[in-house]
């Protein structure tokens, strides 16, 4: 019984510390710490559930659950700590941005494109299909009225717009 209480207190200590830190944190740190706490709580819940189910004294089930919980906490915490930071566009002029018509998701997709990710990379990062990424990018291209044609690269123009560097083209006119 004492061993169980000691284990339970140590298992719940990690999520409690993460949640306490998340309350005091600001910005991106709050999101990351909350994700670590969630991963830790999920692992603790798995161990407690298997401990409750193994009433016949089956140590194998409990030990297996502990290893699974450990793996869950490690993978979940690692992933939480490597979450991409949302990139906010900042207009170079300080005035209204030409990116204002974009939805939050379109801006997120464009930001990942600006980081150099392919459609497949964006899809994996956002856990959406490549077809959905393609639809968001087509919408971005249309809303930004980007030039199209065999001599234009709309992806490059979109990234330049994101970075606030899109001006008059040298060969325009």
UniProtKB/TrEMBL annotation:
InterPro entries in alphabetical order: Sig_transdc_resp-reg_C-effctor, Tscrpt_reg_LuxR_C, WH-like_DNA-bd_sf
GO molecular function annotations of the record: DNA binding
SMART domains associated with the record: HTH_LUXR
Coiled coil: none
Organism per entry: Nocardioides ganghwensis
Pfam families: GerE
Biological processes, Gene Ontology terms: regulation of DNA-templated transcription
HTH luxR-type domain residues: 95-165
Keyword field: DNA-binding, Membrane, Signal, Transcription, Transcription regulation, Transmembrane, Transmembrane helix
Name of protein: Helix-turn-helix transcriptional regulator
Transmembrane segments: 32-54, 61-81
Cleaved signal peptide residues: 1-20
């Amino acid at each position: 019984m004492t061993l169980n209480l000691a284990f339970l207190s140590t298992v719940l200590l990690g999520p409690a510390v993460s949640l306490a830190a998340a309350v005091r944190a600001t910005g991106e740190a709050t999101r990351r710490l909350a994700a670590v706490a969630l991963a830790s709580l999920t692992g603790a819940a798995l161990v407690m559930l298997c401990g409750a189910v193994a009433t016949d004294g089956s140590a194998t089930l409990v030990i297996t659950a502990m290893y699974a919980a450990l793996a869950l906490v490690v993978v979940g915490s690692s992933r939480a700590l490597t979450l991409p930071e949302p990139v906010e566009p900042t207009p170079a002029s300080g005035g209204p941005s030409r990116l204002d018509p974009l939805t939050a998701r379109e801006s997120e997709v464009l930001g990942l494109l600006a980081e150099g990710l392919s459609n497949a990379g964006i899809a994996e990062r956002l856990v959406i299909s490549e077809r959905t990424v393609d639809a968001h990018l087509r919408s971005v291209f249309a809303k930004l009225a980007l030039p199209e044609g065999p001599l234009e690269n709309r992806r490059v123009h979109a990234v330049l717009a994101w970075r606030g560097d899109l001006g008059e083209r040298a060969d325009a006119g």
